[in-house]
Amino acid sequence: MSQTSINDIITPGQRLCKESDFISSEGTYVHKGYIYSSVLGFKHIIKRNIDIKNENNVNSSNSDEMENNKDYIVVLKEKEPSVVPEIGSIVTVQVLRINPKLASVAILCVGTKALKETFNGVIRIQDVRATEIDKVEIYKSFRPGDIVLAQIISLGDARSYYLSTAKNELGVVFAQSVAGSTMIPISWNTMQCPKTKTKEFRKVAKMDQDDDTTLTDLKNE
Description:
Low-confidence stretches: 50-61, 210-221
Strand content: 35-45%
Number of strands: 16
Largest sheet: 5 strands, mixed, barrel
Shape: globular
Distance between the termini: 34 Å
Mean pLDDT: 80
Order of helices and strands: EEEEEEHEEEEEEEEEEH
């Protein structure tokens, strides 16, 4: 077997392809006809290199033949040991818990590079957005489990970095509804469950259509 890799970081729950395109393998799972990533890491295509058909299987069905010719898709937990967060870095974080004053997060990536180990961070209520700061409510901005793009603005204390989502392009990029579906952003402060149509408040990151094919695919379902 030969292997090719994709350099872009893959996050848990990210849609990779249709189930008919590849065989789901390590670090992936199948849900409703699509293959998703189950881990943080990098996508690899493992080619099967089948050039000769087995003459003993002349009676096999076309579907079996197609299945045998598909390559494997995997997501591996590769780490970049030399990368550490620093002031000004754009980071990918996962919200761990919230309280009225801040959201506690785990820093997973710096740019598109996965960290060797996670670092702690906090998004304080005054750093959620740039306008109407006095009206910000943490529980209407983030929920535990959300994946968020943020910027490091201070080294903080000995335990946590201070992060900001005040820029338009920063904020929640992945969130699950109470029903367990990946929510779709419908405005800068609202996401919607495609299954139940229930709306939930978030501080949503403004993203280009070309940069997030997963959200585009979900909107077209």
